[in-house]
Specification:
The chain is 19% helix and 15% strand. It is an alpha+beta fold. It has one domain: Zinc/RING finger domain, C3HC4 (zinc finger) (Herpes Virus-1, 2-Layer Sandwich). The radius of gyration is 13 Å and the shape is globular. The protein starts with 16 loop residues before the first helix and ends with a helix. This is UBP-type domain-containing protein. GO terms for molecular function: zinc ion binding. It comes from Sandarakinorhabdus fusca. InterPro entries: Znf_RING/FYVE/PHD, Znf_UBP.
Length: 115
């Protein structure tokens, strides 16, 4: 275990912590490999995974999308190898992307393109 990866840390929940708290939506999700914080990706309007890195210094995250297992290191700005993290390894397959269900506006693609 390193400062950037704690395999025992469970994910903080099935969606972006900040977006969920604010009633917002996200495009894709990323999970902090150090503490389990789930935040939205840089393609999302909130960019909460990157904000979590800047606030905490936790540099390594893993995709929290079903079927994806890659890791990214913000400090290196590069894909890195990781280890198996505590389950679950993604948001529920029943949760749509973008998500969460019921919070995604009809014009979500236009909103992402406009940013």
């Amino acid at each position: 275990m390193t400062r950037d990866i704690n395999p025992a840390a469970p994910p903080s929940g099935p969606g972006c912590v900040e977006c969920t708290a604010n009633g917002n939506w996200w495009f894709h999700l990323r999970r902090c490999a150090a503490c389990g914080h789930v935040g939205c990706c840089d393609q999302s309007l909130g960019r909460h995974a990157t904000a979590h890195f800047h606030a905490t210094g936790h540099a390594v995250m893993q995709s929290f999308e079903p079927g994806e297992d890659w890791f990214w290191n913000y400090a290196l700005d590069a894909e890195v190898r990781g280890v198996a993290l505590a389950p679950p390894t993604s948001h529920p397959r029943s949760q749509p992307t973008p998500g969460p269900a019921g919070a995604v506006p009809a014009d979500w693609m236009a909103q992402l393109e406009a940013r």
